[in-house]
From TrEMBL:
SUPFAM superfamilies: Nudix. GO terms for molecular function: hydrolase activity. It holds the Pfam family Zn_ribbon_Nudix. CDD domains: NUDIX_Hydrolase. It comes from the Bacteria. This is NUDIX hydrolase. The keyword Oxidoreductase does not apply.
Amino acid sequence: MAAPRFCPSCGGSDLGRRQPPGDTHERLMCGGCGYIHYINPKIIAGCIIEQDGKYLLCQRAIPPRPGTWTLPAGFMEANETTEQAALREVWEESGVRAEIHSPYSIFSVPAISEVYIIYRATALEVTGNFGPETLAYQFFAPEDIPWDTIYYPAIRQILERYIEERQAGVYGIYIGSDDTGKIHFIR
């Protein structure tokens, strides 16, 4: 995300990295009016959707890497909860209405300031309609998942772990980052 060149508050051009009084980090701050521009991580929310022992994947129609597969997920919008964002993204990308059962994974990617929150869910309604960000969607049996064409490594790790736990009948909450690897807690 590119930082603004002019102050969003006063329009001045004296934006620079400064540490505001009482803060612990340097921020983009206006020397004219004192406005502080916070650059916070983006939240991506989505679901692992199960139906009859199969898992929903969407084939990407948009960059990056169109044609690859991923879980239905996307950026959270203002004024919605992470659960609402996850269900909206599932609907927009697959035309599936779902019900969330529990959180499953929180995965941080600090290098690009993103946090992924993935929920366990089941399909309530499959409409057959999907949005423009999706080339196709499909429920895959574990042995039929196109593992080599899953775009995001974190999504592959999360899905692999989930399938192992589903088969064992025990679910945990999976947390980690691309810096430190994965940590897994069993409930």
